[in-house]
């Protein structure tokens, strides 16, 4: 069993402590620091780590770590035999928008499909804007959008408007 090989697992929580609660929620990650110890056993500890940092702060800290390129696998939609990160899904898009704003996107050309990212960039800006204005508001998405704006990233007005309209439409349903 796993506890025979590993004594603890450090889980990088989605939310900073300010977003943690145990009440009714649309995302169980809001209770990571509460749930993980409850799921631990005497021989195997699940530990919420870096909850003092926002997702954006974690991303920027990770980007500053030289070894990260060997282990960066964040994709939810990668194709077998292709790049390990598709470049177009929400996670890849959010990461590459930050890398682009940081001026380091070329660093990731061997592990992300940058051409797919560029082709879906407008969609990723729209989706990020939609998430910021959606009823299932996630403070991490707002942090990303504000950071991109403050860095002077190209955030097309049409994509931002489409995101806001999509969020408004979903609230009406």
Record the SSE blueprint.
Elements: H1 2-5, E1 8-12, H2 32-39, E2 45-49, H3 55-63, H4 68-71, H5 90-102, H6 114-133, H7 139-150, H8 157-172
Parallel strand pairs: 1-2
Helix pairs in contact: 5-6, 6-7, 6-8
Oligomer: single chain
Arrangement of strands in the largest sheet: 1-2
Tell me the total number of β-strands.
2
Rg (CA only): 18 Å
| Low-confidence parts | none
**How much of the polypeptide forms β-strand, as a percent range?**
5-15%
Portion in helices: 40-55%
How many DSSP helices? 8
Biggest sheet details: 2 strands, parallel
Tell me, what's the shape? Answer: globular
- Class by alpha and beta content: mainly alpha
State mean pLDDT (0 to 100 scale): 84
N- to C-terminal distance? 46 Å
Order of helices and strands: HEHEHHHHHH
């Amino acid at each position: 069993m796993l506890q025979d090989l590993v004594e603890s697992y450090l889980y990088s929580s989605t939310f900073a402590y300010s977003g943690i609660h145990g009440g009714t929620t649309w995302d169980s990650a809001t209770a990571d620091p509460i749930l993980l110890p409850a799921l631990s056993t005497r021989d195997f500890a699940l530990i919420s780590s870096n909850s003092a940092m926002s997702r954006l702060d974690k991303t920027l800290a990770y980007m500053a770590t030289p070894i990260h390129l060997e282990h960066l696998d964040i994709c939810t939609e990668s194709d077998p035999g292709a790049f390990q990160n598709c470049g177009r899904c929400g996670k890849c898009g959010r990461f590459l928008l930050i890398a682009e704003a940081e001026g380091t996107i070329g660093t990731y050309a061997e592990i992300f499909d940058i051409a797919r990212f560029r082709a879906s960039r407008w969609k990723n800006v729209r989706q990020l804007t939609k998430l910021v204005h959606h009823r299932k508001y996630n403070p991490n998405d707002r942090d990303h959008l504000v950071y991109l704006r403050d860095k002077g990233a190209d955030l097309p007005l049409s994509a931002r408007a489409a995101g806001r309209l999509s969020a408004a439409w979903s609230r009406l349903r």
